[in-house]
Sequence to fold (238 residues):
Amino acid sequence: MDLFEYAKQVKEKRILDNNLDKEKKSIIQEPLWKNPSYEFVNSLEELKQIALECKKCKLCLTRKNVVFGEGNPEANLMFIGEGPGKTEDETGRPFVGRAGELLTRIIENGLKISRKTVYIANVVKCRPTVEMKGEKDRPPDQDEVEACSPYLIRQIELIQPKIIITLGNPATKFLLKTREGITKIRGNIYQYNDIPVIPTYHPSFVLRNGGENSPLKKEVWGDMKLVIKLMQDLGIKN
Ligand code: SF4
Fold:
């Protein structure tokens, strides 16, 4: 079959993408972000390049930058939040606004490790805002979490962290497949694909509800004690 006929048949969805040789693939291939999962990607950088082009959900319409995640690709600890805010959207980096500063203090003063040694990501990589106006942040919608989660799943598979700390409801509910809210669920250790998961409050939630001296901050500190104990039990130094 010549290439022209071949491409025509693929367009008509009569041929499954099974036995393509590389040359044919390069001509007819759809954008990589359209894939439902990214098992074929073998590095975080490659995955990031795919995500930077992504238009899989409506958040691509209002984002300034895709906030893929950052940190040590071989991190023992991985922190997962819900989605980028204003400063993150502007800079393309996760947790760099006020909430990010609090997270950095939690990591560096609480856990006594450098932020550079951990990996930080979000469930959705583009900023969700109320009514798509680009003003007030909101938690991601379910369809946005579903569209974006394959990136996070592959990030976890590539990094293989020894401990995951989820920050707030969307990340916790997604990883633990629970409907329970963070207030009820925090304070314990759970599992995601044999990786221990410790849920705690999102730093933004702490800042909105009393900040550094609030009871919430004390509960976060309690959760970090759990992390420290688990790190000791697993022989993790950073
Ligand atoms: S939020 Fe995720 S799925 Fe949606 S456009 Fe951004 S990268 Fe793609």
Q: What stands out?
A: Residues 10-16 have pLDDT under 50 and may be disordered. The two ends are 56 Å apart (CA to CA). The beta strands are 70-71, 77-81, 119-122, 163-167, 190-192, 195-200.
